[in-house]
Design a protein that fits this description.
Length: 338
C-alpha cells in the first residue's frame, strides 16, 4: 500500500499546486459532501418537494453513514495528513501541501464517508427527479440530465477530499462505488409510514451492533482509537480536531435522526398538506431553524454529555422539518383564509 499512498500524496500535491486559487470552491464542495449536510441541507429541501424523497434522504443518509463507520473500523485506512508524517518517507523532502479546517477528521480513512454518503443520498434524489422528468416529458435526454449532474458532483466531492488531504484517491473511489450501490438498494425500501416501534428497533439495533463490533474488535486486540491520537499529533492546528468528527458522533447522529424520523411520522402521519406558496415558506423557515440548531454550541466535556446532546440535536431535525414548521405555517395560513 505504500506505493498507493505515496502516489496519492503526489496527486494531492499536484492538485493543490494547480488549483489553490479555487480553494474556496473545494472547501465549499467538501462541506456540501459532508454527511451533516444531508440532514441539515438536503433533507429539508427535498422533503417539501416530495415527502417520500425527503424521508428517503434521511433514511439513506443514516444507514449509509452507519455502514461507513463499520467499514472504517474494519479496514483501518490511513489519512494523508497524518500518513505523510508517520510514513517516514518525507524526512528529507516534505511534500508542498497544506491542511485546512476540514482536513483533520479523527476516524479511519477508508472508505471516504463524504463520497459514500453523498453517492447514496444523491442517488435517492436524482433517481426520483429522473423518474419525475420522464413521466412528464418522455425524453431520455432530459431525464438523464440529473444523472450527469450526479456524476459531476461525485467527481467534485472526491477531488475536494483529496485536495484537502482528508483522503487518498482509492478511498474516494471505494466510497463512491459503495455509496451508489447502497443508494440503489436503500432508495427502493423507504420506510415512509412505518410505525414508531420500527424506527426505535432500527436505531437501537444500529447502536448495539456498532458497540458490539467495537467491543469485539477491541477484544481481538485492535485499538480503534489509534486514529484520534494520530489526528491530534499531525493536525496543523489543534482546534481543527473536532469531537463531532469522531466515529461515535456519526453513530449518535444516525441513531438520533432515525428515532426523530419515526417520531415525526408518529406525530403527524402523512405530513401536512400545503399549497405551493406556504411550501416555499416552509423550506425557508426550516432552513433557518436548522441553521440555528446546527450552530448550537455543545459542551465537549464530559464526552458522554456531548454525545447525548448530539443525539438529541438530530432527534430534533425531523421534528422541525416534518412537524413544527409545516404545522405552524398550516395554522397561520388557515387562520388567514378564515
Amino acid at each position: 500500500m505504500e506505493a498507493v499512498y505515496s502516489q496519492g500524496i503526489s496527486l494531492a500535491e499536484a492538485l493543490q499546486e494547480r488549483t489553490m486559487s479555487h480553494e474556496k470552491f473545494w472547501l465549499t464542495v467538501t462541506y456540501l459532501g459532508d454527511p451533516n449536510a444531508a440532514f441539515f441541507l438536503i433533507f429539508p429541501f427535498t422533503y417539501f418537494i416530495s415527502k417520500r424523497t425527503g424521508v428517503a434522504v434521511l433514511w439513506v443518509a443514516a444507514i449509509s453513514e452507519w455502514l461507513n463507520l463499520v467499514f472504517k473500523w474494519m479496514l483501518f485506512g490511513e489519512r494523508p495528513f497524518w500518513w505523510i508524517g508517520e510514513s517516514g518517507l518525507y524526512v528529507n523532502k516534505q511534500p508542498k501541501v497544506q491542511q485546512f479546517p476540514s482536513t483533520c477528521e479523527t476516524g479511519p480513512g477508508s472508505p471516504s464517508g463524504h463520497a459514500m454518503v453523498t453517492a447514496a443520498v444523491w442517488w435517492a434524489v436524482v433517481s426520483s427527479l429522473g423518474s419525475f422528468l420522464y413521466s412528464r416529458t418522455p425524453s431520455v435526454v432530459l431525464s438523464s440530465a440529473p444523472y450527469l449532474l450526479y456524476v459531476l458532483m461525485l467527481v467534485a466531492v472526491g477531488i475536494s477530499r483529496v485536495f484537502i488531504l482528508a483522503h487518498f484517491p482509492h478511498q474516494v473511489v471505494a466510497g463512491s462505488i459503495t455509496g451508489i450501490i447502497l443508494g440503489i438498494i436503500l432508495s427502493r425500501r423507504v420506510p415512509a409510514g412505518r410505525p414508531l416501534l420500527f424506527f426505535f428497533s432500527v436505531s437501537i439495533g444500529l447502536l448495539l451492533s456498532a458497540l458490539s463490533i467495537h467491543a469485539g474488535l477491541q477484544q481481538l486486540g485492535f485499538d480503534l482509537s489509534w486514529t484520534i491520537a494520530l489526528a491530534k499529533k499531525w493536525c496543523s492546528r489543534a482546534e481543527w480536531v473536532r469531537l463531532d468528527s469522531t466515529p461515535f458522533s456519526s453513530l449518535t447522529r444516525d441513531c438520533g435522526a432515525l428515532i426523530g424520523l419515526g417520531m415525526a411520522q408518529y406525530w403527524k402521519p402523512g405530513g401536512w398538506s400545503l399549497p405551493r406558496a406556504p411550501t416555499a415558506l416552509c423550506v425557508a423557515l426550516s432552513s433557518i431553524a436548522l441553521y440555528h440548531v446546527n450552530r448550537l454550541p455543545l459542551p465537549v466535556r464530559p464526552q458522554g454529555l456531548f454525545y447525548s446532546l448530539y443525539f438529541v440535536k438530530f432527534v430534533i431535525v425531523p421534528q422541525v422539518v416534518m412537524v413544527l414548521v409545516p404545522g405552524l405555517v398550516h395554522l397561520f395560513s388557515h387562520k388567514k383564509k378564515d
